[in-house]
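PROTEIN–LIGAND DATA SHEET

This sheet pairs a single protein chain with one bound small molecule, 2'-deoxyinosine, given as SMILES. Inputs appear in the order they were entered. The predicted three-dimensional arrangement of chain and ligand is reported afterwards as a token string under its own label.
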Amino acid sequence: MSATPSPDLSRDDVLRAPKVLLHDHLDGGLRPSTVLELAREVGHELPTDPDGDAAALGRWFADAADSGSLERYLETFTHTVAVMQTADALTRVARECVEDLVADGVVYAEVRYAPEQHLEDGLSLDEVVAAVQRGFDEGVAAAEGRIVVRQLLTAMRHAARSMEIAELAVQWRDRGVAGFDIAGAEAGYPPTRHLDAFEYLQRENFHFTIHAGEAFGTPSIWEALQWCGADRLGHGVRIVDDITVAEDGSVELGRLAAYVRDKRIPLELCPASNVQTGAATSVAEHPIGLLTDLRFRITVNTDNRLMSGTSMTEEMWSLVEAFGYGAAELRWFTINAMKSAFLPFDERLALIDEVIKPGYAGLVGPAPADGAAR
Ligand SMILES: O=c1[nH]cnc2c1ncn2[C@H]1C[C@H](O)[C@@H](CO)O1
Ligand SMILES: [Zn+2]
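PREDICTION REPORTED AS:
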């Protein structure tokens, strides 16, 4: 799809346009002020003493995450996970997450976290999921229909609890959990380490995404899809390693890249996060430009709003600035994401027809009849 510079599209238009978020970590999206308050409450020592200055703490997270490596980026989560060990803290963080997403114009979100990381003060896995769901329910009720939110349960790929977490996700499938994921350091921890969990989920007709193709290349993506059966790819940005662009501009897709495009496998791209971990050198050079031109099923996501100092509005706006995208492209990303959500088909369709298309109508004119099929 060619970029159509859109001088008429303002940042405020992007803020107000409906947006869909499939890849956002609960423990990567706390308000800095909440980290400060909770750390004081539980006596967690923060790595910097900002003297009550929440903005300074926010800058510390962004600077520390701006590390050029996924492993160092992940070290910052010690300080968010540490303050999310009680039911009250989890509920608060989950409720504020919904409030922040509503303020950002997000109409549908799947928010993930790893329940196994929240057991240090004695909560059970079930109590963790219940506490998060309570916060989401409170946030959604206060938003009076402006947002739909689901949980994704993540298992940490270096650990050995994926089967237990997969079972937990299935137990909660009708109470707010829409899917499963694995996350954490990618190099050295291939998806097939957790094959039994993925096979179990497939037998249960459940949905899952896998962080793959972020800090490691095509073998990780290949395993995630062809061994584990992932519905979507968390990041998946390294699929460009299987795409050759010749000097004359002609493009050749390798077998894996062709498969991903042909099967419309959704890529949960997170531009700002990729720049911080070194998966891309800048937003302007991010492969999202090429992959969008080639019509892969691209979705735009935040990954970790705290560590990247970002939001859906910011991610979308950075693409408007870098690639000259207009409302038509933003609507395409949004409909792509809604079509790829782990929500029943009829509910996805209702959000596309009743919320997303009307929300963009004022910006790009009425959606074409085949708008959802682009
Ligand atoms: O982008 C990521 N890649 C791999 N792992 C990640 C990423 N962002 C967050 N995580 C990890 C750190 C969190 O503690 C965990 C669960 O949300 O997932
Ligand atoms: Zn992630």
